[in-house]
Amino acid sequence: MVGTQGVGKTALISQFMTSECINAYDRQSRDEPAEQSVSIMLNGEESELWFINVSNSKTEIDPTDPPDAFVVMYSVIDKASFQRAEDELERLQDWDLLRTRPAILVGNKVDLVRSRAVSTQDGKCLACTYRAKFIEISVGINHNVDELLVGILSQIRLKNEQFKNKGAGDGGGSHWYKSRGVVRASMKARQVFTWLFGKEDSKFKNCENLHVL
After folding, report:
1. Which residues, in sequence order, are CB contacts of 88 under 8 Å at separation 6+?
2. Among 61, 156, 172, 194, which one is most buried in terms of CB atoms within 10 A?
3. Distance separating alpha carbons of residues 94 and 99, to the nearest angstrom
């Protein structure tokens, strides 16, 4: 779980553990251990997910021994946290971790509609730029929390299967890295198309499906 302080990482992990949303935004990080786990049954197979709360991937993640997935989180009412999420995705890409590990960009606090500062389309555009998945949630009202939990496990299994089938080859990762600016420009163009014609691009729709790569 990667993201700046205050975006709701601790509250989300607590929600995964208890499915309780009372006073979700008021939970204090000092009351929670650094790592927490939850068992989940998906497609008849049980798995245990361990969650680690990370505020700065640069100092808290070892690129030579990375986790199985990255949940990069921001608050939709805080543009600075969104920029921080982009910085974290860029760092993970620079470390060449997004080719073999799934990443899910999560916008939290969508219940605070009047205070929204980051649009859904901007979130999708950023996720598509880094070939990450995207979902908006509200820990406070338990919106899309269960969907995210299942999606995390689904993405881990899918990515592991893909990497196992393809082997440890590059798979086009270097080419994608070199043309990241082109990819971002393309995503912006798709975003404008959506605004102009009210019809969402298929790539934008796909990034919200946590059950496919």
Report:
1. 2, 3, 57, 72
2. 61
3. 11
Per-residue pLDDT tens over the stretch 183-211: 556 656 655 555 555 555 666 778 999 99
Backbone angles phi and psi of 163, in degrees to 5: -70, -35
Number of CB atoms found within 10 A of residue 14's CB: 21
Residue 20's φ and ψ, nearest 5 degrees, are: -105, 135
Give the C-alpha separation, 138 to 127, whole Å: 18
pLDDT at residue 171 greater than cutoff 50: no
Strand order in the sheet with 70-75: 70-75, 103-108, 133-136
Taking only the tens place, the pLDDT of each residue in 41-61 is 899 999 999 999 998 888 899
Measured distance CA(190)–CA(125) in Å, rounded: 8
State residue 18's pLDDT score.
76
Q: Look up residue 119 and give its two tokens.
A: 């649009």
Contact 128, 187 (CB under 8 A): yes
CB 147 within 8 Å of CB 210: yes
